[in-house]
## 1
Amino acid sequence: MWSQLVHKTRRMTCFLLPYYHNSPSTTKLIFTPHYASSVFLRPVSSLAVRSFCSKSGAMSSLQSLQNLDSVSFLKQREAAEIDETLMGPLGFSVDQLMELAGLSVATSIAEVYKPTEYSRVLAICGPGNNGGDGLVAARHLHHFGYKPFVCYPKRTPKPLYSGLVTQLESLSVPFLSTEDLPLDLSKDFDILVDAMFGFSFHGAPRPPFDDLIQRLVCLHSNDQTHQKRPVIVSIDIPSGWHVEEADIDGEGIKPDMLVSLTAPKLCAKKFCGSHHFLGGRFVPPVIADKYKLHLPPYPGTSMCVRIGKPPQVDISTLRENYISPEFLEEQVESDPIDQFRKWFDDAMAADLREPNAMALSTAGKDGKLSSRMVLLKGVDKDGFVWYTNYESRKARELSENPCASLLFYWEGLNRQVRIEGSVQKVSDEESEQYFHSRPRGSQIGAIVSKQSSVVPGRHVLYQQYEELEEKFSDGSVIPKPAHWGGYRLKPKLFEFWQGQQSRLHDRLQYSPQEIDGKLVWKIDRLAP
Ligand SMILES: NC(=O)C1=CN([C@@H]2O[C@H](COP(=O)(O)OP(=O)(O)OC[C@H]3O[C@@H](n4cnc5c(N)ncnc54)[C@H](OP(=O)(O)O)[C@@H]3O)[C@@H](O)[C@H]2O)[C@H](O)CC1
Ligand SMILES: Cc1cc2nc3c(=O)[nH]c(=O)nc-3n(C[C@H](O)[C@H](O)[C@H](O)COP(=O)(O)O)c2cc1C
Ligand SMILES: Cc1ncc(COP(=O)(O)O)c(C=O)c1O
Ligand SMILES: [K+]
């Protein structure tokens, strides 16, 4: 039964979710299924289905960002019932769920508010599990490089909570009493984590939480004065809000970020802040199925996923401050290929996605430039190799002008490498060998694709693909088409770039020089 449920839910995640619009037990917000209508609601061929599934990790983050689907909202009773089921028949302990909930909160915060800008965090924790989530989040935030403080005025005398307090004390996280807290929280903190009440809140807030909630409400008066105020991150429910009816009199707190756990509660529909995240990546399919939960998939290994619209940003304000170790002339390899290998190894070790992806720029005889990404498939003293279609635009341009440049950008490492040189086709044997090492689907794809030519529609590609798939279904060798093969760029110029603060980056350029009839690489530092 379990495997059937798992299977069913996986399929639902891929294809069936957009068909859910109403269910008896949950209310749904239906986003305009713009992309969904073209991708999901049309009959798709088996190839489309398979390729979508295999890419579901990457697609999932896109899906949630584009608000493609409807999201379920829970009533208070449903939230409590799910909690009981998780901790009853499903075998979870409260400690486990709280740990995952608190970690989700900390990772959501870290996705939006970087510790370099928002370091001082105050977690205001209530007496129940919401408060426990706040204590766990504070601990993870400490390990993520933030400076957390905790206000925990009504401590729950249970081993779980006293354990969480001890863990924080062992990290020297300061505990502040309500009397210690400044009346105006805006000067001392960058982030206020509202972990006072979750889905069991009822009635009007009692002391001391009434006053603490009021201090968060007051912060919005600073909005008019344009004074920088701390951001408010509410865990699961903005404290003081009715779990289903939200901010009834409109005078409650207005969080900037809401981290819903398991599934958003009904009040989250009224959340107007910039960042709505979902955390609590522990919902087993049996729960999702029972409550007809429709939730976006979590991307990759993430503990949280953005739901709701991404914030509108002023693009001109987007910038990173690069902080890297010094990159000095005396540290580098004398041979740029060795230096490239060293940095490539670092990119591999840093677990970057597709570190071998590089931008290839070419220009035809008319001098017009074009760039595109290709995958590096080999590098040695002879140069840099990639594979492609010999009748594509890049191939035409390379036949007219056999010069190109390559560009690598390793974002996580603040590094860029530029390479320029002349290009030749690799030998037929080399292309043959590489072609047959590729997955059979990609081999067929290379036959089907007359790269860079106009196709009347995707169906044409599918149809040809399926015909060839059938033809080669006996496992026989798929012949490499003559129009497919590799190129090798022989480098004449390298530049290794590493981002530094205040835009004073490191740039080391290698250019060939002849000294006493011998070719050596001259290394120059260029101004950033
Ligand atoms: N499955 C999940 O998603 C998980 C979520 N978690 C988190 O747990 C909360 C719900 O936790 P719970 O302990 O049930 O409830 P609360 O944290 O909301 O608070 C209950 C305590 O608050 C007191 N309370 C209630 N109303 C008031 C009020 N008006 N004024 C003052 N105090 C109030 C209540 O006392 P009572 O005497 O009134 O009963 C309780 O002491 C959920 O939202 C998530 O954040 C889990 O961590 C993991 C699983
Ligand atoms: C990450 C990435 C890697 C790619 N790798 C290759 C590749 O190795 N070979 C290739 O022909 N196209 C690759 N492509 C597709 C090319 O970017 C491009 O669309 C295609 O080669 C046609 O380019 P052209 O019309 O300029 O010749 C890749 C695209 C991306 C985004
Ligand atoms: C059109 C095309 N050809 C070739 C490749 C390289 O793929 P492989 O690693 O299978 O050789 C890619 C990679 O994205 C591609 O998009
Ligand atoms: K809360």
## 2
Amino acid sequence: MTPPPGLFIVLEGIDGTGKSTQTKQLAEWLRAQGREVIASREPTDGPWGAKIRATAATGRLSAEEELEYFLKDRREHVETLIAPALAEGKVVILDRYYFSTMAYQGSRGVDPAEIRRQNEAFAPVPDLLFILDLDVETALTRIGSRGDTANEFEKHDSLAKCREIFLGLSGEPFVHIIPSGESPEAVQERIRGVVDSR
Ligand SMILES: Nc1ncnc2c1ncn2[C@@H]1O[C@H](COP(=O)(O)OP(=O)(O)OP(=O)(O)O)[C@@H](O)[C@H]1O
Ligand SMILES: Cc1cn([C@H]2C[C@H](O)[C@@H](COP(=O)(O)O)O2)c(=O)[nH]c1=O
């Protein structure tokens, strides 16, 4: 018997907006409803993701090199996890995807539209994209409260450019801008409301 189609959900936003927090809570909620849920993140914990994460401390690559690494990481992610899980009718929830590439490498001068074209040549478009939106100052404060110091990807001015690129996606039918200055519970209620309405 053909399995039901999977559901592909992506959470995006600048560092500190609450993506990891919301991804975890959404996955738990859907599992409690009996859905098989795969939660994952980008950069992944695979070899290319590890190389990228290392540069957050050692110093960033050029924007073009970063783009190449993220594309390699994502190709593996799509082939080994995302596509098979969706084909089996599972729910896939990602903490970051190619929209972060548009934002972060776009903020360094690579054309976001070209980044999107290169990614959508192999990466499936999600059914739902939640953009968690928050002012940069509050986001950086949260990163500090988490016990982290801002890394090479978390500079104020570049995050402000990233935020603009994320918000530029609003208006597309699968995109939902979620104000993330409220409590974690209130933010999760908004997200669940959209998922429920599908
Ligand atoms: N709605 C919220 N209100 C206040 N604090 C929050 C909220 N959501 C998350 N936090 C806290 O802010 C910090 C960042 O949250 P989280 O790690 O989920 O963000 P993130 O978007 O995944 O960050 P990054 O992209 O850097 O991994 C954590 O300490 C978390 O507990
Ligand atoms: C997917 C993706 C991510 N990034 C950046 C954004 C973050 O600052 C770091 C690490 O991500 P995390 O959420 O803090 O774990 O990677 C990027 O520049 N381009 C991308 O495509």
